Queue: 2 jobs
Job 1
Amino acid sequence: MATHKIFLLPGDGIGPEATAEVTKIIDWMNSSLGSGFEVETGLVGGAAYDAHELAISEEDMGHAMASDAVLFGAVGGPKWDDVPYEVRPEAGLLRLRKDMALFANLRPAICYPALADSSSLRKEVVEGLDILIVRELTGGVYFGEPKEITDLGNGQKRAIDTQVYDTFEIERISGVAFELARTRSNKVCSMEKRNVMKSGVLWNEVVSAVHKEKYSDVELDHMLADAGGMQLVRWPKQFDVIVTDNLFGDMLSDVAAMLTGSLGMLPSASLGAPDPQTKLRKAMYEPVHGSAPDIAGQGIANPIAMIASFAMCLRYSFNMIEEADRIEQAIANVLDTGKRTADIYSEGTTKISTTQMGDAVLSELQALTG
Ligand code: IPM
Ligand code: MG
């Protein structure tokens, strides 16, 4: 069996606790199924800053670039609030996204039946929810130049961020959204702010053109991003695939995450373009939740988003579809038995720790594997 090179970046806060639960699954798959994962571990974020005053070292960037997939925990925390902006923990994450050219960020929001009561919205609004946010990840205001604060010399400063998109960036992300829609309910909703932003006007035009040219079989709607946020909490089941830019995607995916009951449930995949020769694509998988410094080190974090991110890794990087399905089924089954980490706990369920949740998913996976 081929080897699969995984580069593990646990990061900060609850990142290491969450990734430890994935490591258990990887070790079991290697020893019992001969899956052939080769795992190397590196430092990112505050952990990398403490070791070498960088958000990620050149050596670890090299490992990431050479890997088949990166598994990323989380970065950041109050400890690094005052480090220089260039080496703040988040800079490590942004550099990985940019240098690996991971332009397509897939953020599925699925409401597990057992958690329909945990959402802050009414059960009938979220029950059965299955939407996919496709967020552009290497452009827009996150990376646009100029990006600076200048001193105006009169006691005032001026801060500038630049929202910028070229045609090809919008074409390739909308292509990903349309392709994925065809494997689901065949509907795409594109969100921008064309009523205020030139980048929104171009976004809207290009998505429409790509649709007309190649994907007219897919149903396409356009929504202003603010109205889209409102519709997401009003009646989220109207959506199938949502395609949007980097910043709107950041915000809308947090909203979508909460619909599912907890931010601790949401995985994500960040994908590059397939190499024309090998057909392989660079990829990184990370939970949508952050480092949650307030609960770090207490063993109460929810590892499900991280485990589900590994399932996405199996699906998108290693074409191990059955194994991915089984992990997702194992998560659903464990939730059905009433086991909950603190973030998704409700009366009548059983509160368990991070490692107990990891163990429960693994033993369910072992049972399903037979
Ligand atoms: C996310 C996070 C990141 C982002 C931060 C940590 C830089 O919020 O992945 O959603 O803004 O993209
Ligand atoms: Mg975010």
Job 2
Amino acid sequence: MPIKFIMATATPLFTPRHVAVIGAGAGGLVAARELRREGHQVVVFERGDQVGGSWVYTTEVESDPIGLDPKRRVVHSSLYNSLRTNLPRESMGFRDYPFRRKEGKERDSRRFPSHREVLKYLQDFAADFEINDSVRLHTEVVYAGVEEGGKWTVRSKSIHRDCVDEIYDAVVVCNGHYFQPRLPHIPGINSWPGKQMHSHNYRTPEPFQDQVVVLIGGAASAVDISRDVATVAKEVHVAARTVEEDKLGKLPGRDNIWLHSMIDSVHEDGTVVFLDGNAVIADFIVHCTGYKYEFPFLETNRVVTVDDSRVGPLYKHVFPPALAPWLSFVGLPWKVVPFPLFELQSKWIAGVLSNRIALPSEEEMIEDIEAFYLSLESSCTPKSHTHNLGMNLAQWDYNNWIAAQCGVSAMEEWRQQMYIATSKNRLTRPETYRDEWDDDDLVLQAEQEFANYEI
Ligand code: FAD
């Protein structure tokens, strides 16, 4: 029987709660939908002027291009103008709201579309599930703290009014984790005379015209930005931790991009020395070195802390045992396919809050977390990789475990196969993987399944 596209109507009511969702990005939107489907009463707080979170592109950048000044006005989005998704749309979309190709002047029907199309998809999602009614735009949560008795005070301020305190049964944190730059330690950087920028503040290549640029990082945005910058720069030198020795040197097919090992040190005369012994005199360093988790509004009396990018202790990256289920987090895992994972986390939270799904006891959750931390230590995984689910395809086991808790079907096999196929394709065709691929059979499987969802 075809699975029907379900609108945001309240389904069987268990114990309805009054829930504050912080953030209206992909995580907050799907959390709101799942909570409302379960019958909860939801308010979504969003400090921006529209829904979509990271996918709301802006030309605005921060006053401190490397994000060290704590007083700077934070710009949320880290998107650059030329960004296209690094995941194919079929696997990227929510499970029951396929990210379909839409024809039309304003639409981008490519398989790996531009960021503008992702924003439209999220806006469509919010409209189709009538989530906008629950969203308070221009409203920043400045404090969310647990009170005696277990209720939560949420203090918000908006452009329309000063701070207001409200009481909620539960708080779901969906504030994103791609807006607080993380910088590497580079010996000599304080007296290096050139300019610096974190990729958070990269929008277009123009500022790099005729410059010698060193770009640090090996992940997707480093690959994209180095190619973008190379269209105008004199030279681009990419320093990455994981470059194979035979790949060091000039990038094949490019006359102004070089690959290097990591930076060893930088010097007052502008020199950047790499660990492989090479050196260049550079004008600019661009740090594509990732982001930090931050929850400046959250007061848990130190029950939840952030230590070296480990947010913890959290049961399955979602619930702090001592405050479960009244505090939860959507979206902490990385190196994952985010939207469907957020969807499952949200279903789990909604079901647990209504008492439809049971959590283990606090002690059992703590034991599980301790065993998880021990397993990370024994495999020499750094603490900072606690929420990295990219290893050994851990995200699929994780998704399927949550799906089982929720009583919904496991993740479709084609999603995992497509993820593997895309990762391989990106390695072999780093320049063209968004336009050339070999997994049309998987696209067909996805489309056959999408036919079950009515829009
Ligand atoms: P966000 O989208 O960051 O949303 C968080 C929201 O919370 C924001 O709207 C913010 O304004 C709001 N907020 C924060 N603090 C407060 C507060 N105190 N009060 C009120 N509101 C608050 N994913 C993919 O699936 N495919 C891709 O191709 C892809 N490419 C990416 C490229 C880049 C450069 C980056 C940075 C990320 C990319 N991602 C990609 C990951 C992307 O971030 C996730 O897909 C997803 O959009 C994250 O959603 P989120 O809801 O967790 O966070």
